[in-house]
Amino acid sequence: MQKILNKQYWMMIIPAGCLFLIFGLARQLNLIHPGQFAIPGILHALVFILSAITALAGPLFLRTLFAHSMRNETEATAKKFLTFQKNTLWISQMTPYLAFIAVLCDFPRFYGGAIVLMTLYAVYYFFPSEKRISFDQKIFRVK
Fold it and tell me: Which three-class secondary structure state does DSSP give residue 76?
């Protein structure tokens, strides 16, 4: 199970990391200039809210739904648990792409900084380590 989740994690993180590297290189070579990709101020707040949803609220909501669906069960099946973990990873790992938008479009410090912090949280917290997966398996009594 951990192999599957690790593969999904890295398949979602590597493209985002490559975007940041390419963008950084383009800025260093003066191919992209600050302010070149300006978007309206209302979109700053919208991307900020989407980042909060993908990094914090979405995974918490999925966890609550999964726990609620398992409330009358004595144990969860491995298939249901894996699906829950994959969905949580999918939602949480959308945050780095929103951070890329924030950096590319030169968001104001408040929005950009908060989005980057939420990205760091999502990338760190939802890493499918063996310890975290086994802890969740104990909580949900996965057979």
Answer: strand
